[in-house]
Amino acid sequence: MLKKAGAAESFLRAAWEGIAHLQSQDRALAELARPIAEQARPLLSASRSLLLSITVVHADDQAITMCWNGDIHPVPLEQALEKDSSVLQRSRRLIEAAGRDVLTELSLRWPVNAAPPAMGIVTDGGGVVFSSHHPSPLSPNWLAMHQAGLCAPMILLDFSPEGAWARLTEPMSNTIRH
Predict the structure, then answer these.
(1) What angle do CA 140, 39, 125 make, to 5 degrees?
(2) What is the tens place of the pLDDT at every residue in 89-122?
(3) H or E stretch at 53
(4) Which of 4, 40, 79, 153 is the most buried (most CB within 10 A)?
């Protein structure tokens, strides 16, 4: 039994070290996140949404793009878009590729075989955020947990103080600055 407890303790220590490393200064990660915010702007505008998330489910390597349009539960991007155009399709392909790059980099910061099964980032077209406590924005009540300050998201790319993320999470004071 002691051997099992030691292995579990070792695993948890490695996981916390990985999370602590996530919180360190990393300009390269911010540069990877910048295209996500840029490509999100036309998609947010066309869908009339406040936030957009890109989540990669590792089991099938599927990228899922969702929008929050004022409700606490996201909807699929294709459902939120009023019109579909080649420009929007191009933005979607570019944002999903940029999202994969950031999420691949973030998944490498977890101990081997300890990365979550699904990881995602959220943007308001200005900044980009990731949550190591709840790495998948597809999780039930993801936004509500962050609005309530129940978990500290990590800002990968700074948000505008007047942006949607700032307005939605204003009372929150435990945000970790990347």
Answers:
(1) 60
(2) 888 899 999 999 999 999 888 887 888 999 999 9
(3) strand 51-57
(4) 40
